[in-house]
């Protein structure tokens, strides 16, 4: 078994990652790819929690004409759909024991989120998928990722991106000469309003000294390299 730097991690998957290159709401090939990456890390002996987004299906903040809280609850349900798709691939294709826990009570399809139960699942080498965000409107899944990472005592929060391999000073999709920032502090990210995660999530990580690594999950092998301690993507921490 390969030597690992992080024994327990929280992986944040954006809803956009589930779309892959197909343009469909959920691309089976993209889901299978993500499940394969998760399996590779689990096989290294790493305990793995995953927070999934739902932006491929629904974004509450962009729902025109709807009450914002109602729209956000709809977005939470979208994350449950993504979590179930990923759970199915992990279990059916890769035979990995998986538990989905939701911040909203949907007992027919998932467990309610209970911190001690989640940690016990991790100790038993089960992958735990956290869905429905924090269960509160006006909170992003980035905030849910930071919160769950802190609650389960994760050693690092891995922000998986699709098509972006780190944090840039400007939008690399608009500026081909955008500078990639390999290391930066929480305060730098907040003050420069860099697109690491929302400010609430970033503040949570800063207050609890939880390191963040932003990387492109769809570059094969990057997740394994991070777990082994290689310098990949962009690191956000207290020391830069």
In N-to-C order, the SSE pattern is EHEHEEHEHEEEEHHEHE
* Computed Rg: 17 Å
The percent range for strand residues is 15-25%
Low-pLDDT residue intervals, each spanning 5 or more residues: none
Summed over residues and divided by their number, the pLDDT gives a mean of 94
CATH architecture: 3-Layer(aba) Sandwich
CATH topology: Carbamate kinase
Whole-Å distance between the termini? Answer: 30 Å
> Given the C-alpha coordinates, what overall shape results?
globular
- Strand count: 11
Kindly list the characteristics that best describe this protein.
single chain, 240 residues, alpha/beta, Carbamate kinase, nine-stranded mixed β-sheet, two-stranded antiparallel sheet, 7 helices
Description:
The protein has a single domain (8-237), classed as Carbamate kinase (3-Layer(aba) Sandwich). 34% of the residues lie in helices and 19% in strands. It has seven helices and eleven strands. The strands form two sheets. Strands 4-3-5-2-1-6-10-11-9 form a nine-stranded mixed β-sheet, sandwiched between helices. Strands 7-8 form a two-stranded antiparallel sheet. The two termini are 30 Å apart.
């Amino acid at each position: 078994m390969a030597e690992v730097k992080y024994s327990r991690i929280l992986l944040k998957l954006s809803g956009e990652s589930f779309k892959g290159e197909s343009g469909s709401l959920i691309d089976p090939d993209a889901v299978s790819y993500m499940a394969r990456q998760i399996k590779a890390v689990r096989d290294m002996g790493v305990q793995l929690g995953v927070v999934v987004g739902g932006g491929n299906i629904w974004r509450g903040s962009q729902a025109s004409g709807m009450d914002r809280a109602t729209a956000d609850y709809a977005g939470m349900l979208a994350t449950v759909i993504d979590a179930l798709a990923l759970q199915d691939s992990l279990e059916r294709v890769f035979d990995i024991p998986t538990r989905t826990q939701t911040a909203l009570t949907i007992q027919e399809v998932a467990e309610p989120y209970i911190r001690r139960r989640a940690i016990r699942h991790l100790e038993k080498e089960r992958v735990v998928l956290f869905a429905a965000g924090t269960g509160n409107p006006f909170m992003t899944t980035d905030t849910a990722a930071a919160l769950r990472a802190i609650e389960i005592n994760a050693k690092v929060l891995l922000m998986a991106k699709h098509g972006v391999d780190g944090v840039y000073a400007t939008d690399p999709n608009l500026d081909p000469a955008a500078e990639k920032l390999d290391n930066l502090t929480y305060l730098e990210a907040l003050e420069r309003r860099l697109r690491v995660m929302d400010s609430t999530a970033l503040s949570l990580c800063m207050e609890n000294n939880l390191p963040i690594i932003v990387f492109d999950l769809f570059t094969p092998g990057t997740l394994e390299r991070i777990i082994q301690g290689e310098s990949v993507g962009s690191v956000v921490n207290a020391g830069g």
